Amino acid sequence: MTIEVRKLKRKDRVVLAQLIKKFADVAGSDSIVNMVPPSSSKGGDTEDTEESKKDATAEVLETAFTLLEQMLQVIEDDVSEWFCKLIGVSREDYDDLAFDIEVQIIEQIVSQKGFTDFFSVGSRVLNKIKSLVSPSKS
Predict the structure, then answer these.
(1) 126: CB partners within 8 A, 6+ apart
(2) pLDDT band at 92 (very low <50, low <70, confident <90, very high)
(3) How far is the C-alpha of 54 from the C-alpha of 14, rounded, in Å?
(4) What proportions of the chain, in percent to the nearest 5, are helix, strand and coil?
(5) Whether this model's pTM surpasses 0.85
(6) Tell me: the pLDDT tens digits for 117-131?
């Protein structure tokens, strides 16, 4: 069976932020801190090259893929419920899909046009958690 992930909506951004928060609560904030790449913004050079934009996009996509995979392992029921809504199937039907259905769904999610912007909003929760876990020392 071929599945198709529907276009992501505003409510999906809210769900993603809630899933990230629950993942942090269950797995511990430290477990996701290392998933957030350090800010690549350099103080002096504000010119964005095409290559640096591509690198930043690739970094966001890699982080998103890793995060979704990790969330699936730790809070499987919650992530699977969201995945069911994204592909429009019941949980019972979802459980009968191919063994690699999660990978298919994640690949479709991260390949959607505009996903990097969508994820960057959801990942603000990650950055907030990171700042709470390792507050800057003055």
Answers:
(1) 20, 24, 32, 35, 36, 67
(2) very high
(3) 26
(4) 70, 0, 30
(5) no
(6) 887 765 665 566 666
